[in-house]
Amino acid sequence: MTGDLLVTFNAGSSTVKIGLFETETTGVKRLAKAVIDFSRTPLHFRIFEGPQVFEIALNATASDDLTDVIAETFGWLARHFDMTATTAIGHRVVHGGDRFHGPVRLDEAVIAEIDTLTRLAPLHQPQSLRLIRAVRAWRPELAQIASFDTAFHQGHADVVRRFAIPRELHDKGIRRYGFHGLSYKFIAEELARRAPKVAKGNVIVAHLGSGASLCGMENGTSRDSSMGFSALDGIPMATRCGALDPGVILYLFDTEGRDAKEVENLLYRQCGLLGVSGISADSRELLASALPEARQALDLFTFRIAGELSRIAATLGGLDGIVFTAGIGENQPWIRAEVCRRLMWLGIEIDPSANEKNAAVISSSASRVSVFVIPTDEEQVIARETLQALEE
What we know:
Elements: E1 5-11, E2 15-24, E3 27-37, E4 44-49, E5 52-57, H1 67-77, E6 86-93, E7 104-105, H2 108-115, H3 125-138, E8 143-148, H4 158-161, H5 167-171, H6 181-194, H7 196-199, E9 202-208, E10 212-218, E11 221-225, H8 246-254, H9 260-269, H10 272-277, H11 283-288, H12 292-316, E12 321-325, H13 326-331, H14 333-341, H15 352-356, E13 370-373, H16 378-391
Parallel strand pairs: 1-6, 6-8, 9-12, 12-13
Antiparallel strand pairs: 1-2, 2-3, 3-4, 4-5, 7-8, 9-10, 10-11
Helix pairs in contact: 1-3, 6-16, 12-14
């Protein structure tokens, strides 16, 4: 298969990250990346080829049918790469429930099953399904593979996965799943390469971006996650609330008279850093602001991260390493420092200079816990899993 082209789609709520990979005898090699920004009108498309960046305004418009968007996108990519060599498309799908434990080739039956999980991931699942269906309509002969964020967490113990609810509800699938699994899989492999001794121990990875979660790993295997049944759970995020007393939901229904769609929109799009600050969902803007509401939002963010990290350390029975990753985790020294300051009782001590430089290792020599900053690469994992599924 050497020389064939794999294309990956990593669908977010308002953007789609695209990866182009060439297959080699040893695996896959990234050629370029691109992004479709659905938040802009007209749709904005950027191609990153080495140091060069190409900015393009698309003529196609976003709707439930993205066939024209995909066709135009591939047309622009064909000006830079031999897209006729494309043999497969790999997709990140956020929710795989208990049905999907690894990458799977997409057919109508699998797509229909993924669609049944849309209510559990309303920000991301619909976008992935639109892309999958658009590719099938445009190039039905292309193989399509789905990689699932939930798959990495399938080995959680029953006590971790179970809510204190009636057994029949658990048996219907109301349980904790965990997300960001593709990112955690990449970090587990990368940490094993960089610091194999630490990777064999108990490590908590903090994936801090617009969506944010924590994962506790033992020897590279997921044992616990801050996210549960949905991608709303755990720590506060850019616009999502994180863990919330269920009584608040009942209050919104009964006392405020809000319907399910209103509450869903509130919890997914109006909470988190945006809701607390009333200023912005972007941590960079909050860090630059002198307003007390901005600091309050950031304080709550780091406070909840430290608290959840402590809980997961209890699941693991100890802690040997912490990894910060994703947009905030990789690039915000103040947030990393505040989280670690709240965890000094665990013997965590960071090197301020290394932290300010976003160095690969930011813990001091006196720290009992190693602290790393490692960039994640979900598209790399999607490409590898796509190749794996094709070979199988």
